[in-house]
Amino acid sequence: MLPLIQRMVVEEKKWLDQEEMVDCISISQSLPGVVAINTATYVGNRKAGLKGAIAASLGVILPSYIVIILAVTLLDVIGVNEYIAGAFTGVKAAVSGLILYSAIKLAKKSLKNLYSWVLFLVTFILVAVFDVSVIAVIVSGILLGILYIYLKRKEDKA
Prior knowledge:
Elements: H1 2-12, H2 18-30, H3 35-78, H4 82-110, H5 114-128, H6 134-157
């Protein structure tokens, strides 16, 4: 859903600019819960306060909830079916492609200097290879980002 949300919020409705959207997704990923719901809540709150946050959250949750209820009911009726299994294989592949597309689009906007590229690569290796906790990586990223800005400002004053 992130590519859809991003396209609608940034390109079509222009509720946020690309930089704000990157910040929104970063915050949404670091909070517990589903990223799409967190993102919708953030955008709804920015546009219309608490009422907007509630409306946006329900707008994301209710369609999925209804589809899941219908799918479970339908699957109970159909049972195990190789065509249904094939459909789920296709859906998983398509969703993986959408996630990759969103990640590439975010990377183009976020990775602007050597520091951010190094932090990205180290983070990826820590999580993908060494199975380091995502929470530890996010907290470390926050602290390193603050340190980076502090050192950069100190360097600019000198």
